[in-house]
Amino acid sequence: MLIGVSLGTAGERPASDRATSPTPARGAGEASTTDDDWNPALSVGPPGWLLKRCLDVAGGLLGLALLSPFLALIAIAIRRTSPGGALYTQVRVGKDGTRFRIYKLRTMVEDADTRLDEVMHLNVHASEFGDGRLYKIVDDPRVTRLGAFLRRFSLDELPQLVNVVKGEMSLVGPRPLAPIEDQHVVGWARTRRSVRPGLTGPWQVLGRNAIPFQEMMRLDCAYVSRWSFARDLALLARTVPAALRGERAC
To answer: Which of 26, 62, 156, 171 could crosslink 105 through cysteines, CB 3.0-4.6 Å?
Structure first.
């Protein structure tokens, strides 16, 4: 699979890195990333961060202004079709390990968190890749009918524009991980923490749940080490078509 934003081949390191950092063989389900000595460097300096932050604030505010009526209608539909509030918050790990609450439209039944143990055997990453470090549940019985539609097209993620404006997230960046997932990010993969997590990014554009944990780490670190404003714009441009396809969403 080729990454169309000059990130290279999915999971591939730069040639200079590959020449000096051979990768030992390993199983997909190994619990750490310390067996690979790839050391991606942060490529974004202060001018780049300022430009990126300006895009985040402008894009976030514009997105909220344009989408607010649409989000209000979805919120009303959520309240009318299932008990509970329209918004859902969850703790995620952000830049430099800072924890924050991410905003989402509620797509599950109200008591979903208390029923997590009932569905852990449905984790697609454990069943397909033998690696349970990411938690994505296929055919989750806790998801409402409306919630399934929202998830398919990533509409439940739109309230994260608030996180972007607040400076907790960026429009583009690594996927925001839950603490239970982030505990497995060690060694060179910690480079992904050097930037704010993104509303979209390589993982979302290139295959979402079809990409295993280790490959996602490589994509995220490649994004950080080769960041440019043009690549952010390219990923944003590819996000809408990827979301509309509704593939591998759960």
So the answer is: 156
